[in-house]
Sequence to fold (286 residues):
Amino acid sequence: MADALKNLSEISLEGRVALVTGAARGLGRTMAFALCQAGANVVLLDIDAEAADASAHEAAGQPRAGRAMGVACDIRNLGQCRAAVARTLEAFGGLHILVNNAALGPAHVERAAQTRSSLFHEADPEAWGDVIDVNVKGTFFMAHAAAPALIASRWGRMINITTSLSTMQRGGNSPYGVTKTAIEAETLIWAQDLKSTGVTVNSLIPGGAADTEFVSARSRTQIAQTGRKLLAPDVMIAPLLWLCSTEADSVTGARYVGKMWNAALWPAEAARGALEPPVLRTPDPD
Fold:
């Protein structure tokens, strides 16, 4: 991997079109703003239409920013995913980057009426299923809807937002941990399925809980008790922009950790330092 890029400020995504799910708040909003400021035209997808529009307006108002548009979409609905892609193509003439960020977290199950504890056998089954529907099925629906447009562009990026290995395995965290493990498998499989199309598929994680509304009050208390600190959402920006640059054309099926990015290094070197072994072993060649 050549160290041609000296710093992230050299990255220009002008002419690229990005679609970010769950973009009205939290990590999604941070990533959508970063892509827009790098010059990309960005569609901010969210189930909350008003919040998506407000965030898009603010994103487009940044210096040197590309255009931005808020679109309401429930990713559990394949028809809505297809409609969102169609609106993106109509507005901007193409699609090059998909960031699969939208998700339900542990708080959704914690708040459910039938949940008695965080243990899987005391969780509300319907709420547990909701998390599967959004995080696994919804991510698939969005990727399925976007893939033809990415392939047609002959250059594309699909970036799946997952979580740390410890979160996937931690007791009392089965719905969320299960879904993110599934998305890690999707990353590896889809990277192979899209081989030779010009479209890469990688996963990206903060490297710990990020300081957003996504983190429940219970989780915040547990984190504070351990002495750990929540991460700033902007730990996602550097690896995201690098993955969306031409410097990462040959990178697919990989997993990057935002907090491990060393901004003092040239981006290609920082990327090597932020690369984490896949959660699942890549299959041996046939």
Notes: The two ends are 26 Å apart (CA to CA). The chain has ten helices and eight strands.
